[in-house]
Amino acid sequence: MTHLQAGLSPETLEKAKAELKENPDTLHQDIQEVRDMIITRPDIGFLRTDDAFILRFLRARKFNHFEAFRLLAQYFEYRQQNLDMFKNLKATDPGIKQALKDGFPGVLSNLDRYGRKILVLFAANWDQSRYTFVDILRAILLSLESMIEDPELQVNGFILTIDWSNFTFKQASKLTPSMLRLAIEGLQDSFPARFGGIHFVNQPWYIHALYTVIRPFLKDKTRKRIFMHGNNLNSLHLLIHPEILPSELGGMMPPYDMGTWARALLEHAYDEEADYCPESYTLSVRDLERDLDKNLSPKTMKRSQSVVEPGVLKRPDKAKSDEDNMQPLLSLD
């Protein structure tokens, strides 16, 4: 074991070896091979290239050197293309702070049975008079940047659960295709995190409609990990034990305190008030949408032609994670 693996438990070390093909004997060589590719992209400013940073990209792409480098390049390219999004990317930024305090994202204290961190979003909490969708995306990216420092999560990954209860059609109308594509590119294509499952619960018909719009921009692997549960929380509990879920998701834990993760990031600044309204935000959402139309190229947003066939719940194969054994609950073709 090298010093780069010092933060991993014995169980996670074994998982990294078996699932990610991580080999301590070749770890430094793997990292250097990715670093050597940087010269091929002089158009990108690679602002960080230390061993620990590159390692998280290798883990996210199962030590495929080329795919890890492509992810690294897209990570910095995304930030170059959306400079305004990453100005003042701090928890104390007024828009980010208000999104965090409303639970965007929420982070459960307990890990799932595979050691994954569970993020929860209660969509109806979005107060559109106080912050924008871009603020929510920035809060999520900032949170992931903080959590991905943990090497255990680099290996084990994350679960995302979105509760759409009471999310109105008016709120949904703010989720434009350009904004959703921005989120897809930032989370799916440009961030070194392993997402083991994305769960929708209590989704109304207009969320199904939005999904059909963005589905062509999702990788086949991502589509297979999206589960539409509707109001069937039993199917959610087959994948995430109710013992660790809040009561809003049919779990045995108390209702989720929306300020939990915000307090962890903000500490003493949590109770400080700041004047802010979306209209005064330095990033114009309308201008951003125009930029997206120009900057989101087929290189980074390929349309996948494969189709996820409708499936049914199957008894899990214990050798794999539950999401790998469970077909999507609903086909939206």
UniProtKB/TrEMBL annotation:
Domain CRAL-TRIO: residue ranges: 96-257
Region described as Disordered: spans on this chain: 294-333
Biological process (GO), any one: podocyte development
Alphabetized Pfam families for the sequence: CRAL_TRIO, CRAL_TRIO_N
Membrane topology: Peripheral membrane protein
SUPFAM superfamilies: CRAL/TRIO domain (SSF52087), CRAL/TRIO N-terminal domain (SSF46938)
Key words of the record: Cytoplasmic vesicle, Endosome, Golgi apparatus, Lipid-binding, Membrane
Biased amino acid composition, Basic and acidic residues: 312-323
Highest taxon of the lineage: Eukaryota
Alphabetical list of PROSITE patterns matching this protein: CRAL_TRIO
Location of this chain's protein in the cell: Cytoplasmic vesicle, Clathrin-coated vesicle; Early endosome membrane; Golgi apparatus, trans-Golgi network membrane
Gene Ontology cellular component list: clathrin-coated vesicle; early endosome membrane; trans-Golgi network
InterPro entries the UniProt entry points to: CRAL-TRIO_dom, CRAL-TRIO_dom_sf, CRAL/TRIO_N_dom, CRAL/TRIO_N_dom_sf
Major localization listed first in the record, in broad terms: cytoplasm
GO molecular function term, any single one: phosphatidylinositol bisphosphate binding
Chain's role: Required for normal morphology of late endosomes and/or lysosomes in neurons. Binds phosphatidylinositol 3,5-bisphosphate (PtdIns(3,5)P2).
Protein name listed in UniProt: Clavesin-2
